[in-house]
Amino acid sequence: MPQQIIDSHQHFWQLERFDYAWLSSADKTLYRNFLPDSFEQVLKENGVAKSVVVQAHQSVAEANWLLDLADQYEFIAGVVGWVDLQSENLAEQLDKLTENPKFKGVRHVIHDEPDDDWSLRPQVIAGIKTLAKYNLTYDILIFPRHLKYIKTLLENCPEVRFVIDHLAKPPIKDRKIKEWAEGIKEIANFPNVYCKLSGLVTESDHQNWTPEDLRPYIETALEAFSAGRLMFGSDYPVCLLAASYKKVLETSAFFLKNLSEADQNLILSQNALKFYNL
Description:
Elements (H helix, E strand, L loop, with lengths): L5 E5 L25 H10 L4 E5 L5 H13 L3 E6 L8 H8 L5 E6 L13 H12 L3 E4 L6 H10 L4 E4 L13 H11 L4 E5 L13 H15 L4 E3 L12 H12 L4 H15 L3
Parallel strand pairs: 1-2, 2-3, 3-4, 4-5, 5-6, 6-7, 7-8
């Protein structure tokens, strides 16, 4: 394992602070607060040096809260927050957020939008193009059916650095791969796009998954993006639905063990440092 590991994808939430519509009170695993004190201990136990915290609530208020946390905890190397990409006041939002050097990128939950082609709205494309002026990245959160639209988005925004979260959520539980693999390989043709090896255990059978269930998807990603454009992410605490942090990290290491030490370093730390300018 590399001397330094960076987790490129984790979350915090505080139930009394924001209304997380996607969280259900019936979910005994996730319906509680997840804050930096407890996560810092998890990282130490697993030998992970730093993390990038990613939005869980679509509001500028949450982005500011995450930046406040990042100022208090050194292990938080960067924040990927939410802004209204279609707002006339987008530049004003970004001017204020980028006053904090730990604000590194933007994410919108595309896969919850009623229109699959949401990312192709002219205002959205214009908003994403604006990110390049601030040296900010864009995290793409989608399902496989959105990949065909993302290809057009990428054609329109060659100057923006993108990363696909969770390998675009392949249908691992259903053991389907063809449509997803074709789409992800097309996306990988764009040199400004990276991909996160994250969120895969929760796309599997939560109770019965094995590393072999993930193998064809991870191998496809390695072939498509190579070690130079992949990065490790835990998707903690969402991963707890299917696996502990330790198990997620061990599973990633299992699939990377046959790579050179240099390639392992790229995926487990260097690519995150470079992509997010940490």
